[in-house]
Design a protein that fits this description.
There is one protein chain. This protein has 657 residues and is α/β, with parallel strands linked by helices. The protein folds into three domains: 12-271, Rossmann fold, CATH 3.40.50.12780; 275-383, no CATH class; 474-656, GMP Synthetase, Chain A, domain 3. 40% of the residues lie in helices and 21% in strands. The chain contains 22 helices and 29 strands. A five-stranded parallel beta sheet has the order 4-3-5-6-7, with helices on both faces. Strands 12-13-14-15-16 form a five-stranded mixed beta sheet, with helices on both faces. Helix 9 (239-252) links the parallel strand 10 and strand 11. Helix 8 (208-221) crosses helix 9. The radius of gyration is 26 Å and the shape is globular.
Length: 657
């Protein structure tokens, strides 16, 4: 491990200073600004952090304070976190797309005095939130555009704070290094707020020791080094970005590449060509949707070639990736497919240089997982949550199963409780929930095991298989298992389906809500000259219902072969008149379905599904981006779909019994 002058590099500020000494000219950040990639070296990053930290100190930031950070992935926002940590403070990143009211809750709960934000949009939201958070005294912005005439008290530019820092540093030259050296590995480095699936978000406190130990385990597991490249595009507030970008960059010294904007992530990905990539399933889903849209727009020859070679990929790609024997004919065909289809496709996606890719956060559909691996991308699943620094189980290269999340990582203990819940004890376990000792004691038992709330089991090879959230796994009326997330993931594999919510616990049949993907279905409709005026109009068209019914019936045909879930085939569905939205509290900021809230909000639609009605009128209140509220009205069609007889011996035996 790299050492500082006085103590081991056991905090992120110490690691930053160590990289600035050992590789001062190596790139620490790249940011695309006005179409040009700008590089910041480790030495430059350390200087910027030092100036900003001294500026914060001059404004009154002290050890033990919390610093909120809000915005897209920007080098200066990462540096702001490092500056606060250098002073003994704690970084508290917030979701940049959250409305002011949601931010106000976190700002108040975390006791925020100082906030660093990206631009005018975030300044406006924090100024609005400040009315209910009187302790928020200083707001510092990076991008000054649109803020020239803002004169609110406590509002500062990033540059002006650094100017204060230069003066403070000149007057107190030993201050910064003394404060950085005073950091302890058991100090809290960050507070990451959970997505709030079942209630208000909780602040998860992680120490440097937990994060750095976990980071070293990850780096060793897949041989990550300073030569790797990563594109930072995930929310700063998500544990996946903090660990896989910020923490690992400090630990192994690779460069963080920040896209120009969320809208340019695809093109920026192609230009950077990362070697290591991490994303939640929704990222891979949306990417595949765009691929399928482009294929449908292609000429007949290209479409036929794509579908032919994808069949070859499904036959041979996984075997080749895992080093298993493949017949010579398939090997040759796959090689041709690499030249004509897979290689160009990976290049378009920006994944040509990928050595290892991860997905986590929630279950990924087996078909989606199979697609990426079959074209030669070493995509692997991991399992974890905010409270465990993510890393609990991971799939090893060459030992990947589509329906598991791998084996426990080094130093991690996993056991299954008598009720089937997954329990975890690891070096990466949180220090606790911020200001919630009772909930901390409830989550971590006397033996130090964290209760994940997930239902799962180990297979014969020691791989963990997650069924669903324990609270969501239920039983159909006939006593067979009902796992809604598993069904929803199968539906979301189709590019036309963006979200799905399945119902069936305690009922005789499984029914579902569907959200169409506006891009994919809109493209499909335009090719067929079907006019529409917007989402609600498109979602209600009979032709769209026919399209979605085909997808649902394919899922049912697949479920018919599943011994555990063959009785969970979908009997009826409707296409919702609006997209499920975090601003309407239907999804979390990480786009996880808030199942109970949706069941309550749309109870009239669920009743209609199970009452056998063919239509149901509904009015739904929605929130607009500018804070206004409105109402969307619709008369929704409800469609019956075909189900299939069980094709599994186990299910047949169960029916006979």
């Amino acid at each position: 491990m790299v050492e500082t002058h006085k103590r081991p590099a056991d905090t992120f500020p110490k690691l930053l200073l160590a990289h600035a000494r050992s590789g001062p000219a190596r790139p620490a950040f790249r940011e695309k600004d006005l179409g040009i990639w700008q590089t910041t070296t480790w030495a430059q990053a350390a200087d910027e952090v030092r100036r900003f930290a001294c500026g914060l100190a001059a404004l009154g930031f002290r050890r033990g304070m919390n610093l909120a950070v809000v915005g897209d992935n920007r080098p200066r926002l990462y540096m702001a976190m490092a500056a606060a940590q250098s002073l003994g403070g704690v970084a508290v990143p917030l979701y940049q797309d959250a409305p002011a009211a949601d931010m106000a809750y976190v700002l108040e709960n975390a006791g925020i005095d100082f906030a660093v934000v990206e631009d005018q949009e975030q300044v406006d939201k924090l100024l609005e939130a400040r009315a209910g958070v009187p302790g928020l005294s200083h707001i510092i912005f990076d991008d000054p555009r649109g803020l020239r005439n803002y004169a609110q008290p406590g509002l500062h530019s990033f540059d002006s704070v650094q100017a204060l820092g230069r003066t403070h540093d000149a007057d107190h030259p030993e201050f910064f290094l003394r404060e950085a050296e005073a950091g302890n590995p058991d100090d809290v480095a960050v507070i990451l707020y959970t997505s709030g699936t079942t209630g208000k978000p909780k602040g998860v406190c992680h120490s440097y020791r937990a994060l750095i130990t976990t980071g070293h385990t990850l780096a060793e597991f897949d041989r990550l080094s300073a030569d790797d490249d990563v594109l930072c595009y995930l929310p700063l507030a998500w544990v996946g970005d903090f660990l896989y970008s910020y923490a690992l960059s400090n630990i192994v010294g690779f460069c963080l590449n920040c896209p120009e904007s969320p809208a340019t992530v695809g093109s920026d990905l192609r230009e950077i060509g990362p070697t290591y990539y991490f994303g939640p399933p929704r990222t891979y889903e949306s990417t595949l949707t765009q691929v399928m849209i482009r294929i449908e727009d292609a000429g007949a020859i290209k479409r036929a070639m794509f579908h032919y070679f994808m069949k070859v990929a499904r036959r041979a790609g996984l075997r080749l990736l895992e080093g298993r024997p493949v017949p010579l004919t398939d090997r040759l065909l796959y090689g041709i497919g690499e030249v004509l289809v897979y290689g160009p496709l990976k290049n378009v996606l920006g994944l040509s240089r990928i050595r290892v890719a991860y997905t986590g956060g929630e279950a990924i559909g087996p078909d989606l997982f199979d697609f990426y691996r079959s074209i030669g991308i070493n995509l692997k699943q991991l399992y974890g949550m905010t409270e465990t620094c993510v890393t609990v189980c991971m799939q090893r290269s060459g030992d990947v199963k589509l329906d598991t999340v791998g084996q426990p990582m080094k130093g991690v203990e996993v056991k299954i409780s008598d009720s089937g819940e997954v329990l975890v004890r690891s070096p990466g376990l949180m220090a606790g929930y911020y200001r919630r000792p009772e909930e901390t004691a409830e989550a971590i038992d006397a033996d130090g095991y964290f209760h994940t709330g997930d239902a799962g089991f180990f297979d014969a090879d020691g791989h963990l298989k997650i069924i669903d959230r324990a609270k969501d796994v239920g039983r159909m009326a006939d006593g067979t298992m009902f796992a809604p997330k598993y069904i929803e993931n199968k539906l979301k594999f189709f590019p036309f389906i963006k979200e799905a919510v399945a119902f069936g616990d305690g009922r005789a049949t499984c029914n579902a809500f569907i959200n169409i993907d506006m891009d994919a279905v809109g493209n499909w409709a335009e090719r067929r000259n079907l006019p529409y005026s917007g989402y609600t109009d498109l979602a209600g068209q009979s032709a769209v219902y026919d399209l979605i019914a085909e997808c649902v019936e394919k899922v049912n045909a697949d479920l018919a072969h599943d011994a555990l879930l063959s009785n969970s085939q979908i009997h009826r569905f409707l296409v919702l008149h609006k997209e499920l939205d975090p601003d309407d509290d239907e999804l979390t900021r990480t786009r996880k379905v808030r199942r109970r809230f949706i069941a309550e909000k749309y109870a009239v639609l669920i009743d209609a599904l199970y009452a056998g009605r063919e239509r149901q009128a509904i009015e739904t209140q929605v929130k607009f981006e500018d804070g206004r509220q409105g109402v969307i009205s619709a008369d929704l069609a409800i469609r019956d779909v075909k189900t299939f007889d069980s094709a599994t011996p186990a299910a047949d035996a169960r029916k006979a019994a």
